[in-house]
Amino acid sequence: GAVVSQHPSWVICKSGTSVKIECRSLDFQATTMFWYRQFPKQSLMLMATSNEGSKATYEQGVEKDKFLINHASLTLSTLTVTSAHPEDSSFYICSAERGPSTDTQYFGPGTRLTVL
Amino acid sequence: AQSVTQPDIHITVSEGASLELRCNYSYGATPYLFWYVQSPGQGLQLLLKYFSGDTLVQGIKGFEAEFKRSQSSFNLRKPSVHWSDAAEYFCAVGEGYTGTASKLTFGTGTRLQVTL
After folding, report:
1. Is residue A79 within 8 Å of residue A19, measured between CB atoms?
2. A108 touches chain B (CB under 8 A)
3. Chain B residues touching A37 at Cβ < 8 A
4. Nearest residue on chain B to A39, judged by CA atoms?
5. B100 pLDDT higher than 50
6. How big is the CA angle at B94 (ends B93 and B96), to the nearest 5 degrees?
7. Which single residue of A25, A71, B16, B83 could bond A50 by disulfide (Cβ 3.0 to 4.6 Å)?
């Protein structure tokens, strides 16, 4: 159990367009989901914490108007990269926490975004 | 602010040899510590975690880690490495459960290469 999926796994878009990435918890309800960004050969950097039914909490330095996060249900969170530019190209990873008492995150396989 | 240091960027071991991956953390209170493994095309998989209690933690795939408060370390070990263990390993520290989700801070990762 505790499977998290992401869609798409890979996306290429033109500069100036918006891209939506979905994160789903397949076999459990996740009141909290997290979005990370990983640069090549580097660590994961937390971008934002997403709670179902409320606004996301963004980390310092992350533009909330550029990276829109919606957590409309207990199994789905979306990250929309608006007006994407080449510097937004990265590997985006989501995770979901299974219940408020487990304190363990389960990670999706990631989405590779390439902005031309 | 919490931080994690993984001193070794890249380690190569022979199959069957023992393995130790180092992790040092900085955190004011009792840390929640994790080891994750990332294989190409797959999401981060939790190997083991330490919240409290016995300082020697057993995980999946034959891995174990020991929490040493005096050294601020949480090193990952495996007595006999298999070729399938080749991957990227991340140590992470969590803020701890306070009734809300735990934010994770990751180290920069250690890439393990296994020679036959």
Report:
1. no
2. yes
3. none
4. B108
5. no
6. 140
7. A71
